[in-house]
Write a structure and sequence with these properties.
single chain, alpha+beta, FAS1 domain, 2 domains, seven-stranded mixed beta sheet, elongated
Length: about 375
C-alpha cells in the first residue's frame, strides 16, 4: 500500500474522484452497430453517392450490400464518377458483366478500418483482383484514388470515401486512357464470364485476407499522428448523421477516463506529458488504458526514468498505448499487429481465456467515446 501511494505521489496524480461514481462498464452505453444503417442506406443518406447507388441497383448488387457482411466499400463520390470519360460509362452501361466487375472491385470482404490500412500492401477485392494501398505525402491512397477523411461506419461494414473510380487491372487500371479502358471492356467481360453473381456474392462474405491483416504492421508513426488532425468530410458527416449525433452526447477519451475513476495515474501522466489536447482532439483514437492498479506494479526504476523526462520517455510510453483509428474488439485477431502513435507495433493474442495486447490482459473492451474507443488493460505496455 505504501509503495502504491509513493508511486502515485511521484507521478503527481492525486485527483478528486467523481462523487457519483458508477462501475466503469456500466456508466457508458455502448453504441450498437444495429442502430446504424446498412451500407446502401448509409450511402443514400449521404447524398453524394447517387451515381454509385444507381449503378449498384442496376447491377443487382443492392441486396448483397444490404446483407450481413461485413464488407468494406471504397465509395467514389458523384464528382468522381463525373470525371470518368463518357465512353467508359457507356461501355459499362452496355455491359452488365463489366459493370458488376467494376463495382465488386470497390468491395473488400471484411471490415477493413483505416487503422488496418498500411503502405505498400495489397488486398483482394470481391471481384478477385487486388487493390494496392500507398501513402503519398501523408495521404492514404487505394490505387490512384485518394481516401478522403475517416471511416464511415455502417451496420454491416465500413465505407471509405474516394475521389476517383477504381478500374480493375483487367480493364486497363485506373490510369489507362479512356479509349483503352473502353476497348478492353470486352476482354474484361470474357475474363469474368466464369464468375457468376452467386460466386461473387459468396466471395464477399469471406473474412478479410491475410494481406489486409498484415497491413497493420507497416503504418508509420508520422502518418498515424497526422490522422489525429483530420477533419470529417461533408459526405461522411451526412452519411453518419445519426451516429455523429449520438457521439456528440458522449464524453471524449480524457473526460471518459477521468469520470471512470480507475485511471487517475494514466490521466495525470497524460497531463504531465502535455497530451491532453491531442487526446481531446477529433481522432478517432484507440486507447489501451492501464488501470491505477496496473501503474502501481511498475518497478521504481521505471517510474524514476519516466519522471526524469516527462516529455520524452513518458510521452513515448503513453503514445505506445494509442493506435490511430477506432479499433473495436471485433477487429482484433490472433497474432495481429497494429502500429501505435509511438511508431512501434503492439501484438494481439486471442484465446479462450480472453484477449491480450502484448503481455497485458484486455479486461474490458469497446468503451466508446466521442473521439474513439477505450480498451482497459491490467498492465502498462513498455
Amino acid at each position: 500500500m505504501k509503495q502504491r501511494v509513493r508511486h502515485t505521489l511521484q507521478l503527481a496524480i492525486v485527483l478528486a474522484l467523481v462523487l457519483s461514481m458508477m462501475p466503469f462498464q456500466g456508466v457508458f452505453a455502448q453504441e450498437s452497430m444495429s442502430d446504424k444503417a446498412d451500407l446502401v442506406d448509409t450511402a443514400i443518406a449521404a447524398g453524394e453517392f447517387n451515381t454509385l447507388v444507381e449503378l449498384v441497383q442496376a447491377a443487382g448488387l443492392e441486396e448483397t450490400l444490404r446483407g450481413e457482411g461485413p464488407f468494406t466499400v471504397f465509395a467514389p463520390t458523384d464528382e468522381a464518377f463525373a470525371a470518368v470519360p463518357a465512353e467508359t460509362l457507356d461501355a459499362l452501361a452496355n455491359d452488365p458483366a463489366a459493370l458488376e466487375s467494376v463495382l465488386l472491385y470497390h468491395v473488400v470482404p471484411g471490415r477493413l478500418i483505416r487503422a488496418l490500412i498500411s503502405d505498400g500492401k495489397e488486398v483482394t477485392t470481391a471481384q478477385g483482383e487486388s487493390v494496392l494501398f500507398s501513402f503519398v505525402d501523408g495521404v492514404k491512397k487505394v490505387n490512384d484514388a485518394t481516401i478522403i477523411g475517416r471511416d464511415v461506419q455502417a451496420s454491416n461494414g465500413v465505407i471509405h470515401v474516394i475521389d476517383s473510380v477504381l478500374l480493375p487491372p483487367s480493364m486497363g487500371g485506373a490510369t489507362a486512357a479512356a479509349e483503352e479502358a473502353a476497348g478492353e471492356s470486352a476482354e474484361a467481360t470474357e475474363t469474368m464470364t466464369d464468375t457468376v453473381a452467386a460466386e461473387a456474392t459468396e466471395a464477399m462474405t469471406d473474412t478479410v485476407s491475410a494481406d489486409a491483416t498484415e497491413a497493420m504492421t507497416d503504418t508509420v508513426a508520422a502518418e498515424a499522428t497526422e490522422t489525429m488532425t483530420e477533419t470529417v468530410t461533408t459526405e461522411e458527416a451526412a452519411a453518419d448523421a445519426g451516429s455523429e449525433e449520438a457521439m456528440a452526447d458522449m464524453a471524449d477519451i480524457v473526460d471518459t477516463a477521468v469520470a471512470a475513476g480507475s485511471f487517475n495515474t494514466l490521466v495525470a501522466a497524460v497531463q504531465a506529458a502535455g497530451l491532453v489536447d491531442a487526446l481531446k482532439g477529433e481522432g478517432p483514437f484507440t486507447v489501451f488504458a492501464p488501470t491505477d492498479d496496473a501503474f502501481a506494479t511498475l518497478p521504481q526504476e521505471t517510474i524514476d526514468a519516466l519522471l526524469a523526462d516527462p516529455t520524452g520517455d513518458l510521452t513515448q510510453i503513453l503514445l505506445y498505448h494509442v493506435v490511430a483509428g477506432k479499433v473495436m474488439a471485433a477487429d482484433l485477431s490472433d497474432g495481429l499487429e497494429a502500429d501505435t502513435l509511438q511508431g512501434k507495433p503492439v501484438t494481439f493474442a486471442l484465446s479462450d481465456g480472453g484477449a491480450k495486447v502484448n503481455d497485458a490482459n484486455i479486461i474490458a473492451t469497446d468503451i466508446e467515446t466521442s473521439n474513439g474507443v477505450i480498451h482497459v488493460i491490467d498492465s502498462v505496455l513498455v
